[in-house]
Write a structure and sequence with these properties.
The structure holds two protein chains of two kinds. Chain A is mainly β. In chain A, 0% of the residues lie in helices and 45% in strands. Chain A has no helices and nine strands. In chain A, strands 1, 3, 4, 7, 8 and 9 form a six-stranded mixed sheet that branches. In chain A, strand 5 (63-68) and strand 6 form a beta hairpin. Chain A is globular and about 45 Å long. Chain A starts with 8 loop residues before the first strand and ends with a strand. In chain B, 0% of the residues lie in helices and 56% in strands. Classes of the chains: A mainly beta, B mainly beta. At the A-B interface, strand 7 and strand 8 of A face strand 10 of B.
């Protein structure tokens, strides 16, 4: 049972900008940094954004992350067909039962 | 660059213990900069963090699995392992190992997983 809530789906045409939201609470996003992972069909997840808005080497600058309060967002600008994938937000949760939590996941479809 | 590879049985009987090993190449599990982690994904569902281990052997587990999980490290083989006891069909999933980078700062506890292994499907069935 995920404590980070994402919309199940998002879509756009090539070249459009798509934004995915991630809603949490004071014990996770409100207290710690947010990461985003991209999972292409049939493959392992890949780190896309760490520390709210940092891109690992090799990740295109079309991908950007932000955080405000207990929510975070991932934006994909200039959407491309190869961006069709599942996207997960994640953060450490400082609640009584401390653990790393993932979001519910968002399927991005390129129309 | 660092690569991780999971290995172990793809089929486990209910009530038995699931055992997987992650072999690390291009890097060392003895590095003090990382947490070595297990994450799973049931078919068609989302990701669930199982736990991690530090090279010293200290561990942290998902509370929902804590009573059944043991993660260990073998620095001589550059491997770390997962054992999950008393499995049921609900434990059927793709199991991933991953390297966790961490630190604390004014932003809180920062932890992210990169890279990941390719994953291995474990089915619990008689």
């Amino acid at each position: 049972q995920s404590v980070l809530t994402q919309p199940p789906s998002a879509s756009g045409t090539p070249g459009q900008r798509v934004t995915i939201s991630c809603s949490g609470s004071s014990s996770n996003i409100g207290s710690n940094t947010v990461n985003w992972y991209q999972q292409l069909p049939g493959t392992a997840p890949k780190l896309l954004i760490y520390s709210n808005n940092q891109r690992p080497s090799g990740v295109p600058d079309r991908f950007s992350g932000s955080k405000s309060g207990t929510s975070a967002s991932l934006a994909i600008s200039g959407l491309q067909s190869e961006d069709e994938a599942d996207y997960y937000c994640a953060a450490w949760d400082d609640s009584l039962n401390a653990l790393y939590v993932f979001g519910t996941g968002t399927k991005v479809t390129v129309l | 660059q660092v690569q991780l590879q999971e290995s172990g049985p793809g089929l486990v009987k209910p009530s038995e213990t699931l055992s997987l090993t992650c072999t690390v190449s291009g890097g060392s599990v003895s590095s003090g900069s990382y947490y070595w982690s297990w994450i799973r994904q049931p078919p068609g569902k989302g990701l669930e963090w199982i736990g991690y281990i530090y090279y010293s052997g200290s561990t942290n587990y998902n509370p929902s699995l804590k009573s059944r999980v043991t993660i260990s490290v073998d620095t001589s083989k550059n491997q770390f392992s997962l054992k999950l006891s008393s499995v049921t069909a609900a434990d059927t999933a793709v199991y991933y190992c991953a390297r966790g980078t961490y630190y604390y700062d004014s932003s809180g506890f920062q932890l992210w997983f990169d890279p990941w292994g390719q994953g291995t499907l474990v089915t619990v069935s008689s």
